[in-house]
Design a protein that fits this description.
Shape: globular
Order of helices and strands: HHEEEHEEHEHEE
Structural class: alpha/beta
Radius of gyration: 18 Å
Distance between the termini: 36 Å
Largest sheet: 6 strands, mixed
Number of strands: 8
Number of helices: 5
Amino acid sequence: MTEQAHHLSPEQAAQFFKDMEAEGEPEVEFNPGIASRIASKTVAAGVLIHDSNGRILFVTPVYKPYPEIPGGIVDANESPYLALQREIREELGIALNVGNLLVVDWTPMHGVWRDSLQFIFDGGTLSPRSIEQIELPRDELKTFEFRALDEVRNLLKPSFHRRLHEANSAKADGRTRYLDFGRPV
């Protein structure tokens, strides 16, 4: 149980342990072995951050040829929201108040990658001072830049471009969206 609370503040950890206690004893497998046969999905969380001109913050990983938004894979027993907060600290080195969930997108298995759930949260608008404070981990990220979504269309996978477009729309109208492969359902 302490593994799940690893990235929590003391207050969050205390609430987590109360919630776990309230759940009671773990459920017994009524059909032995069924839990190990249930499919698993990759889960990732990213953040949509803008500058004062409405451009999106993109980072370029050292291990990929195309830009991404800050974020990453959710660890086992870690919530997408807490994973995102961890990734922001690790990737940008700044404190950021993460806002509302904008998009949940299911992506199908493709090549070696399992199907996944992609969460995008609102990271607000960074001031010029906050932008100056960004410190990238050079072993993970090559660059960061703010670009208009249409400027990077040809650099992104089509489903990722659709996801970001929908995230921008969700931010504008305040309505969270569920997507399948970047398309509203």
